Amino acid sequence: MNKLLLGLIPLAAIVHQAEAQTRQISGRVTDRATGEGIPGATVLIKGTTTGVSTNSDGTFTLSAPNEGGTLSISSVGYIAVERPIGTDTQINIGLASDNKTLSEVVVTGYGTQERRDLTGSITTVQGEAIANLATPSFAQQLAGRSAGVVVQTPTGLLGQQPRIQIRGTNSISSGTYPLVVVDGQPIFTGNTSAFANGSNPLADINPADIESYEVLKDGSATAIYGSRAANGVILITTKKGRQGRASFTYDNYLGVAQTLKRYDMLNAEEFIEISNEKDRNAGGAGTIAAPFVDANGNTVSTDWQDEIFRQGFQQNHVASVSGATDKTNYYFSGGYTDQTGVIVSNSLQRFSFRANIDNEVKKWMRVGMNLGLTRTRVYGLNTSINGLSGNVAGALSLFPNVPARNPDGTPYTNAAGILGQGNNSQAIAFNYPNILFPLENNIYRSISYRILGNGYLEVEPVKNLRLRTQLSTDTQLQDDFTFWDPRQGDGRGVNGYVYQLFGPSIRWNWVNTATYNTVVGESHKINAVIGTEYQKTTSSYYSASGTNISDRTLGQNGIISSTLATPSIGGDFAEQGLQSYFGRLNYSFKDRYLLSFTLRSDALSSLPEANRRGLFPGGSIGWRISEESFFKGMGLSSVWTDFKVRASYAQVGNTDIGFFPYVGAFGAAQYGTSSALAYNTSGRFGNDQIKWESSKKTDIGVDLGFLGGRINVNADYYENDVDGLILAVRTPLSLGVPNNGYNANIGSINNKGFELSLNTENIRKDNFTWSTTFNISTNKNEVTGLNNNEDIIDPYNITRVGEAIGSLYGYDYQGVNPSNGNPIYRKADGSLVQGSTAASGATASRYYVYDPANPGAALGTGVAASTLTTADKKVLGQTNPKVFGGLGNTVTFMGFDLDVFFRYNYGNKIMNVTRQQLLRNDFLNNGREILDRWQREGDQTDVPRIASGTSAFVNQDGNASTRFVESGNFVRLQNVTLGYTIPTRFTNTLSVNRIRFFVQAQNVFTITKYKGVDPEVNTNFTSNRQAGVDYNSNPQQRVVTGGVNVAF
After folding, report:
1. Is the entire prediction scored with pTM above 0.85?
2. Are residues 24 and 52 in contact, defined by beta-carbon separation less than 8 angstroms?
3. Residue-wise pLDDT tens digits, 433-451
4. Name one GO cellular component term (predicted).
């Protein structure tokens, strides 16, 4: 026994010495972006085998050397870091997401694929990049962040739908909105409201619920969706829980909004001067306008924009709970948004709820559901470009030399229900009412309810084979209400107006897929999917309206029976079915040689029975040169780490062609003294030969990676040939039905361009990172075929073979004759003509030859008469940008994060009809540009002589001209966000994982030469043929917000 004790003494000494040389350290590994603990992260003493894995909440404890040493921390999906231990015993580490690693798995149609194996053009945007942006829709947050994608916000009104185009305009008369798929479910994207401001279905997806979205652009990526893929595809994946204990988050922001820019209008003094000069030049006494002095002796000068614009308020709140166990993954969220617009009477309120649940019933079986519920209420206004109650149109035209309100606060009006004329000798032109009255008394309300839901079952009967079935519904209920007060404005002429609409729309979608993944012999990677899809869409509405209201209170509450005139009722019902079979095969050999083939067969009920089924093939190849031995032998692989070339071709279609474009439409018609149903001017003949609009997509691309993925470059050249476009063909007059026609596949267009994306990690340190994203795209759109090559002419646009769709079309304005103030135009033959500004007499509203060598010659005697006709019009520019893109920089330092994002457009033109209207020679207010008008011989100016009653002729009202067509180029600081995350050593004491405060500004400033309120405004944003027109558009808003992100 003594010998044993003596033997243990030195052993104990050794153990004691070892214990004296080590110590216990603990800490927590968290996600730097969310503050949540990272379970299963590896914490290792560098240079040793001593290490542990973090617990479910990210905590760890391990033994470390008493002095020195370095911790190495890593986890799948995060950038590994090293941290000197020093003398610390408590070490907390935040890991940044490894964007390259996260993007290795990309969501594709009906499945996923490793990015290294992709042969198509797909852009991925993580939801965290857009979650805190204060916009009503994720689509507006996409603007500038993906190459090849144009997102335009056409007005500043809340609740309106943005315009989205992927790789150009791909149809003339049919829809060009991309297919949007949420968690495998195709959803409604178009306007489903008869409301004056329309509706935005994409806003029903809370950006805070988005995990990521992929933009599929080329034929290889989109071909799996066949007939619905001509306009590209956006795949949205909503959030799921993460392994570990439940995580609670709360995010909010509060903010204010202001108009981005206002119109530059005349004040009272300038208005009086201009109005009297108009009158005097038209032969009047020049005393039509006079000052107005109020009861306090102050001369009135009303800025009507102060009356209709205000500081808007916005608030947004989102709370969520999520987590995952070995069996169940769950994510629940609730959101509330309340926004008051910068325009009086415009507001939006939305409630949203999401529940995503996935459960493993057996090791070979999973079931789940994704459910989104929203209720949205929007109060809007009359957006008519020339309605008496139109907000901007009405406000800009009103006299500035009269008060906005009476002393008792009521709107200043006269007995006829129009704006009071004050001391002016005449009433306002066109009988404009005081805009305050309709804004305060008319009602434009839209309430919508939305259910986005799907349920699925997935089984794995044998290894590597997954069978999945998913049933989904997108159900919308639209409740629209309009009330026009009978006392003033648009309602006065009909003694009040009430309109009510109820419209349900339902889309059912059932998808069944079988997916097989395997690797054969370590070199052959195979991924195959086959499936069927069935979709049925029904859309209907029921409406009633009435005029001659007996009681305003009843009318305001939608009681149409209170109207004395016979109520009008309406309704419609339409349905569409889609039946599909599809398959895709992806093959990779040694991660070098890549092949993908897709085939889809679609049958669409909207087409004639003989042409309903279409076959849509697609294929692509890729070569990862960086995996070749000769490339690795060049000694560049340490710097140039990835080099892939790819090419694809596919044929896809467009289902957004209406419900039954081949069916003949009838209407009530009268022939002689008889009445019957017949083909009238609002109907059309049928055509049972209608078939698919088809797009042939070609793409050649290259993907480059440097420095282990810290620099990534993606470049593409694409070309889309679209043919079989459905257009209206006029019927011969000999048929006896004038102005009638039928639909036929007679149009074709071409889009081609380049795309370049650059993503860099400029600096990557534990406490300091700096990354940059940049993209630039070009697009050339050309019409290549029309019916007999006949032009399609709209008021300001033309669709012509050899030109871009909806190019601006008008007269070539050459300035002002310095001798007499007449406007000068260049005719098609190159000669110059001048239009007389005389308000009356023999020369009024007539054109005469203009001789620059003799500008002062008398019209009608020394100068010969001439003409200016539609034959003298020419193409003035395209309406879609030729070059566009974005530039973003993100910097993190210690707990601070800064994100700055710019967006730009180049090459498009805008017809500024608003500016044209603000130079009218009628008795109403003008823009300040009219102060530069010609007044006397020798004046050098671009603004002609003014005279009452000459607007239509002098300004070419209703026509485009180079005088009012302007460049739409701009560079915009779209977003600036500055945040600060409180260190975990403080939040841990509060049992909080993360607290981040942030401030943000959107639409900070815009650099542009455009003279309107915003270069993105687009009055006809729903029309492919009539884009690029600014006609009394509502200005966009600048938003400044502050908020907090909290995670428990």
Report:
1. yes
2. no
3. 999 999 999 999 999 999 9
4. cell outer membrane
